[in-house]
Amino acid sequence: MSIVIIRQDGKINEWIASLKKNNTDIEVYSYLEAHPKDKITMAIVWKHPSGSLLEYPNLKCVASFGAGVDFIFDDPGFPSGVAVTRVVDPILASDMSEFIIANIFNFLKNLTDYKAAQISEDWNRKTYKRIADVSVGIMGMGALGSLAAINLKQYGFRVHGWANSPKPHHEVRTYVGQTELQPFLSATDILVCLLPLTEDTNGILNKELFKDLPQGAYVINVARGGHLVDEDLLEMLDNDHLAGASLDVFHQEPLPKDHPFWRHPKILVTPHTASVSDMDSVVPQLLENYNRLQKGAFLNNIVSEEKGY
Ligand code: NDP
Ligand code: OXD
Question: Could you confirm whether 272 is annotated as catalytic?
Answer without folding.
Answer: yes
